[in-house]
Amino acid sequence: MTKKLNVGLIGYGFMGRTHSNAYRRVTNFFDVPYEPVLQVVCGLVEAEAKAFAERWGYKSHTTDWHKVVEDENIDVVEICVPNNLHAEIAIAAAKAGKAICCEKPLALNVPQAEQMVKAVEESGVPNLVSFNYRRVPAVTLAKQLIDEGRLGKIFHYRANFLQDWTISAKVPQGGMATWRLDIKAAGSGVTGDLLAHCIDTAMWHNGPITDVCAMTETFVKERMHAETGKVEPVGIDDACTFLCHYDNGSLGNFESTRYARGHKALYTFEINGEKASIAWDLHDLHRLSYFDHSDQSIVRGWRSIHVTDSDMPYMDKWWVPGLQIGYEHTFVHQVAEFLQNLAEGKSTSPDFREALATQYVCDAVLTSAKNKKWETVKKP
Amino acid sequence: MTKKLNVGLIGYGFMGRTHSNAYRRVTNFFDVPYEPVLQVVCGLVEAEAKAFAERWGYKSHTTDWHKVVEDENIDVVEICVPNNLHAEIAIAAAKAGKAICCEKPLALNVPQAEQMVKAVEESGVPNLVSFNYRRVPAVTLAKQLIDEGRLGKIFHYRANFLQDWTISAKVPQGGMATWRLDIKAAGSGVTGDLLAHCIDTAMWHNGPITDVCAMTETFVKERMHAETGKVEPVGIDDACTFLCHYDNGSLGNFESTRYARGHKALYTFEINGEKASIAWDLHDLHRLSYFDHSDQSIVRGWRSIHVTDSDMPYMDKWWVPGLQIGYEHTFVHQVAEFLQNLAEGKSTSPDFREALATQYVCDAVLTSAKNKKWETVKKP
Amino acid sequence: MTKKLNVGLIGYGFMGRTHSNAYRRVTNFFDVPYEPVLQVVCGLVEAEAKAFAERWGYKSHTTDWHKVVEDENIDVVEICVPNNLHAEIAIAAAKAGKAICCEKPLALNVPQAEQMVKAVEESGVPNLVSFNYRRVPAVTLAKQLIDEGRLGKIFHYRANFLQDWTISAKVPQGGMATWRLDIKAAGSGVTGDLLAHCIDTAMWHNGPITDVCAMTETFVKERMHAETGKVEPVGIDDACTFLCHYDNGSLGNFESTRYARGHKALYTFEINGEKASIAWDLHDLHRLSYFDHSDQSIVRGWRSIHVTDSDMPYMDKWWVPGLQIGYEHTFVHQVAEFLQNLAEGKSTSPDFREALATQYVCDAVLTSAKNKKWETVKKP
Amino acid sequence: MTKKLNVGLIGYGFMGRTHSNAYRRVTNFFDVPYEPVLQVVCGLVEAEAKAFAERWGYKSHTTDWHKVVEDENIDVVEICVPNNLHAEIAIAAAKAGKAICCEKPLALNVPQAEQMVKAVEESGVPNLVSFNYRRVPAVTLAKQLIDEGRLGKIFHYRANFLQDWTISAKVPQGGMATWRLDIKAAGSGVTGDLLAHCIDTAMWHNGPITDVCAMTETFVKERMHAETGKVEPVGIDDACTFLCHYDNGSLGNFESTRYARGHKALYTFEINGEKASIAWDLHDLHRLSYFDHSDQSIVRGWRSIHVTDSDMPYMDKWWVPGLQIGYEHTFVHQVAEFLQNLAEGKSTSPDFREALATQYVCDAVLTSAKNKKWETVKKP
């Protein structure tokens, strides 16, 4: 008989929904060793927490995250709150012996991230950071193709993450909907929010980053704070571009901005190897572009692989060939593996330590931009 | 307090999964007047029915569909079995006063379909036929653009539905996995299975079809029967192409085949109007192509609309701009509207009578192909 | 030393320009056995003929085509006038022993076309009909892939030719710019003008067409005549769609219209074979889409072949990989082969007899549409 | 009567062909004030120069470029030789009072480029540097859209130029076919060859570049010299990526490499403005992607503008809507404007001084890469 696993969710925003949905769906599609039970959701506004609990089937709600962490009945703590709260909650949860799934980026900054790693490693709790894009089937397929050696020596790994939602100077900062624009809540702008995804996937695909040289910009210098109504300086980076070297000798080029008119969530990457190349973008996430130089020359061309067949990563669990899945399924994949590993007492990749490596890169990027110099990246 | 609605599912195949998933998810995303309760699933093989019930949370299972239809506790009957069983079950369910959601095509043939319409209309039960592709947000948006008059007079409406899964002569006919190739279970080949979708959407977008002229082909003449192991003649149409006129004076061109190498489920349509054109395909279902002749000439071009913003049909219920949904969501949309209408005692479009119109077109298409003549389409 | 070849051009319209350009360029890129000399251009309006001669380097001009045909100095007659003049000029040129390159479609109708074939075959003059799209490198590559057996048995060959330039009822018929809308000058509408291209390429790729069933429509029933100013009934087909069988057992589906808003010259075809499929369109003529089922499944997808490498048909003559050529180059390829064959006294494919086969299909299509019946296609 | 203009071409390689073709074609399509006469071609190997002269219609040939420059009969000198010869020839031609069209990049390095500017400005000869991609109609259209203010404030201008032809270590350096890999002949690798194009267009579109920070790499460290057969160190940059600021406050990100498997000549740019965005790539050069935020939200999307209509830049000179032109036409456009300006004694943009600005950027890029520091760009 499948064991129950009691889940406590902290944060009922956008990420709270994606994580709840993942727990609600995983057993319908994946054979997992636990039956997740949504025990409690925690959030700032009680009425909203209550409504969220009802909609998603949480048995109770609270406005005090300590109650979740300290609840003996809870097996897993899901951290879906703004970045400035990750460290405190995660460390408390680790001390309380809870398994932890924490939203990305791991922390506000490197010192917090290091403490978090220390906490989970000392307590030995299984942990995971929700860099969900690794588990888009096409992105996982890219990893598989690289690991099989199909690309040969890699020369270039480029990634962009382009949005356009903050172009208007009327968008406020702070508050529940726009905390990502508030340096206190977010720690950084696009670097921690968007480039962290690109960096996590890039290092998973292509190995560690050696050094970086970055440029950041804040196009809108002041914004009203959503809670206080006061106009305050904007502390985050609206845009960030950086060059890098990888330890394997390849070159990297990353760019993220929230000022790329026409793009909502256009995360793209392209990898150029000696023998083959790969490209992908989040706006058509179910496709992978692949160029194989070993094809006969007159029929050689970029292939658009519709990643829906049952031999593609994760796709045997879903529908039939030709029928695409979407964004939310990445969280289901993540939870499925998290549950599998939990049963063996193991963490799931990327765990806190891996996420620390990404935090080191982000930190080096921001330092480089500030100092206008190349920075060597610390290794975890 | 939300009322419970007891659901009985007949058929645990591919469609049984999509319908179950829709009921499991709808309350998390839509505000509906009922809380669906998955009461019973019915299927041929008891062990499989039991496993399905466990995976999807049905309280019980059975191998006798009469028990579902006759169960006083059941409010809604979901018919997800091969086409040859639709009529008998639906008529029994109608007589038992159940609301009905029936998979497409409505029936094996016109006489059955007419009896089914009669049954639901005499009993007055709310009913729905699951032509789910109407509720792809991009397809619904197309309907909205047409209704707003943006296309002006329509000249052409083309649709294709291309697959490639039966090219091998080793694919059997009959049985649970391949009943769609068995004329007795399916009634026809691509016409009822695939073109029925295209025809339903086309008439929803562009109004009734007047007359048709069709060509069908069966490329593989004999296949082994999956259950008997005997090689038998193939009775279905492997491919079907037809010309038609619409009542509004526009021209239609439809093609479906399971012999289009490289396409898994490539349902496409293109509509050419005096002022604008629209194109869409199921392999990138979250995009709508739109050409507006009123654009200034030097910046005029086909627009690729990424149908993910919250002002797009259904999309306020899901995630954030740029993040796509997939195939299965169409069934959630369908169930959300079905439940809303149920609370008002109404059927949901396309109901049995609308589906009968599609059956008339399919019937005329098959007759035309047989007789090699134009056929006038009967109207419901 | 290269021999001179004296060319006489009849018709200085759009096609007169493409043919002149081809003769002016061919020796720069291809090694041909003749040096073409542009001797005389003939057209209706003397001032325009004179200006054309000056721009393109013709030594003289005339308004009487008989003078071109009867000129002993002329080796080749290029026929670039409206369709109703093809037969008379071609027959006269054949009798005068001239090599002939005639614009498509071969003639107004089948009787004319048969007389033209008779004339060139009796006189033995080398001849060519300018179905130029065969010589788009990507289209030629498609032929090569088919001939190599890469597609296996072919199931489907679809082609469309979509335009939108006559949607406005204010576009006149007749005259020099719009003779294609005048039934007397053009013989038919989209069938002879556009579908003739599709049919020629289709039979080149996929063999003879057995029978057809067509539907035509004239959306705008009356138009002003450009020369008389009188409003007259429109005699041409604005749109034509037809089904067909090929002798090899595959199915065809063709559509052409000048009422497809958003498409200027969107000639497309797709071929589905047992082992592979091919697709192409004229709006990106330098690309060929190719799907090879023998690719390993996890990296299988439609390939977009950028047909610019030097091992692609004709491309060794042009620039370097990655740099595309355009529409006009098809005429250069055609002339290069015409000159090569001339030196051996041979006709160039498609010659008049091959073009007669296309004329038979067009004739059957128009008859079928008129009679609303399937028509068997006559073979040349 | 049109005046004759005597042209002397130095260099019969790839660029010699594109320039010759442009002169041969320009009068057929454009109304220009001169009739160009191809007088003499100069190249290293006499037999090849002779063959080139015959193919392209040059009246004579020579192996000594001084004879071209000093020939009183020559009006225009076309410089199509490796970069290390540009300065000497251009300065001599300027002193001899010839109009000059010089291939890009202007020079091996900044000191040479400054001398060349001085020479043409002192002598007052009309001059032009052949950054031909400005005159792709879609690229010119982009300039027009920017100048009309449609993009509003610009935030980002990204460009890439990706090739893959030098991945094999067996490709030699030096010699006539591969001088671009020889530091002595080329001055740099991708920076001068490919990024120079991107930089020229970027500054034309978006104004001057303020400062840069670059990274270069030489993946293959040694190559055989094509002439000597000796293996020598490779001095060029195989890849170069740089960040920059523009004077208008926008951010730039450029990358070029010859190690991007699958790309032959993939020059791309994307411009993100407050109100609209633009994207383009050379592999489909006849299309411009355009996103206009002022479109109504439910029909907003990236537009693919097929730049073939007669109201598009240059396109009234060519064929009819829907029919694309190719790479070589950019040189025809360039020559048409060069001839127009010559008649008025004016230089054509980009002239030597504008090209010097690009040279300053390239120089700063290479210095930055060497010193691993940001570099301020000198202004001409």
CATH topology title of the largest domain in chain A: Dihydrodipicolinate Reductase, domain 2
User: Please, how many domains of chain A?
Assistant: 2
Q: What is the CA-based Rg of chain A, rounded?
A: 21 Å
The helix/strand class of chain A is: alpha/beta
Kindly report how far apart the N and C termini of chain A lie: 40 Å
Gross morphology of chain A:
globular
Q: How many DSSP E strands of chain A? A: 17
In DSSP terms (H or I, runs of 4 or more residues), the helix count of chain A works out at: 10
Q: Residue ranges of chain A: pLDDT <50 for 5 or more in a row?
A: none
CATH architecture of the largest domain in chain A: 2-Layer Sandwich
The largest inter-chain interface, given as chain pair and residues per side, is:
A-B, 38 and 38 residues
Oligomer type: homotetramer
Helix content of chain A: 25-40%
CATH class bucket of the largest domain in chain A: Alpha Beta
Task: Please give a structural write-up.
Four copies of one chain form a homotetramer. Chain A is α/β, with parallel strands linked by helices and 380 residues long. The first copy, chain A, folds into two domains: 3-132, NAD(P)-binding Rossmann-like Domain (Rossmann fold, 3-Layer(aba) Sandwich), CATH 3.40.50; 133-350 and 356-375, Dihydrodipicolinate Reductase, domain 2. Chain A is 33% helix and 26% strand. The first copy, chain A, has helices spanning 14-29, 46-56, 65-70, 86-95, 110-123, 137-147, 183-186, 190-206, 329-343, 352-371; strands at residues 3-10, 34-42, 60-62, 76-79, 99-102, 127-129, 154-162, 209-217, 222-224, 231-233, 239-246, 251-257, 266-273, 276-281, 287-292, 302-306, 375-376. Chain A has a nine-stranded mixed beta sheet. A six-stranded parallel beta sheet of chain A has the order 3-2-1-4-5-6, with helices on both faces. A two-stranded antiparallel ribbon of chain A has the order 9-10. In chain A, helix 5 (110-123) runs antiparallel to helix 10. The longest helix of chain A has 20 residues, at 352-371. Chains in contact: A-B, A-C, A-D, B-C, B-D, C-D. The A-B interface holds A 14, 17-18, 20-21, 24-25, 27-28, 55-56, 163, 165, 263-266, 282-287, 306, 308-309, 318-329 and B 14, 17-18, 20-21, 24-25, 27-28, 55-56, 163, 165, 263-266, 282-287, 306, 308-309, 318-329.
